[in-house]
Design a protein that fits this description.
The protein is mainly beta. The protein is built from 2 helices and 6 strands; from the N terminus they run ββββαββα.
């Protein structure tokens, strides 16, 4: 079985960095991907999809230092859905992309001095159960 997603999009807001009770870093941010096409009348149409990205460990800290709202990024990871009870006790579901690799992208001239070319890959040894239990949001 395969659970893999590859996205290239723009950050909808700055990454939010938090730490679990075990002091493991976790960052999250929304990523927008868009598609464009011409409809049957020849008019340009556009649809934007929003993806919830979650990054763990050292990679989360690097992401929070270098990625900002509007910046383009390549995200490779796996899809995970988790459930939680909201403040009214209603069960809610959230689908996320657990990032395993992120690359900074952008247009020429957008280079940031000291920026890493590619982020450290996620710690693939971390069991998914620990991630869910430690998620601080």
């Amino acid at each position: 079985m395969v659970n893999k997603v590859i996205l290239i999009g723009n950050l909808g807001k700055d990454p939010e960095l938090r730490y679990t009770p075990n002091q493991k870093a976790v960052a999250s941010f929304p990523l927008a991907t868009s598609e464009r096409w011409k409809d049957q009348n020849g008019e340009l149409q556009k649809r934007t999809e929003w993806h919830n990205i979650v990054v763990w460990g050292k990679q989360a800290e690097v992401v929070s230092n270098y990625l900002k709202k509007g910046r383009q990024a390549y995200v490779e990871g796996r899809i995970q859905t988790r459930s939680y009870d909201d403040k009214n006790g209603i069960k809610r579901f959230r689908t996320e992309v657990i990032a395993q690799q992120i690359r900074f992208l952008g247009r020429k001239g957008e280079e940031i001095p000291g920026e890493p070319e590619e982020l450290v890959e996620a710690d693939l040894e971390t069991p998914a159960q620990e991630e869910e239990e430690d998620l601080p949001f």
